[in-house]
């Protein structure tokens, strides 16, 4: 629910992406999010679990 709310806000500013890449956190691997992304026509890609290089792009955006 929170993830979907934040994504809708991001879509309003940035537009609807064709692909969304996330890490493998529980909020991003839920059935609810999978359904939400399907409704929006967004392909969901996750990084390789336990692989810093597989998550590099996602983790880089999390830096402050």
TrEMBL record:
Residues 1-64 form the Integrase catalytic domain. Keywords: Endonuclease, Hydrolase, Nuclease, Nucleotidyltransferase, RNA-directed DNA polymerase, Transferase. GO terms for biological process: DNA integration. Gene3D superfamilies: Ribonuclease H-like superfamily/Ribonuclease H (3.30.420.10). Pfam families: rve. GO terms for molecular function: endonuclease activity; hydrolase activity; RNA stem-loop binding; RNA-directed DNA polymerase activity. PROSITE patterns: INTEGRASE (PS50994). This is POK6 protein. The gene is Ervk6_1.
């Amino acid at each position: 629910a929170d993830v979907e709310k934040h994504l809708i806000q991001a879509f309003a500013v940035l537009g609807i992406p064709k692909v969304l890449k996330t890490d493998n956190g529980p909020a991003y691997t839920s059935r609810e999010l999978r359904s939400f992304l399907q409704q929006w026509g967004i392909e969901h890609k996750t990084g390789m679990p336990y692989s810093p290089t597989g998550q590099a792009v996602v983790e880089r955006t999390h830096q402050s």
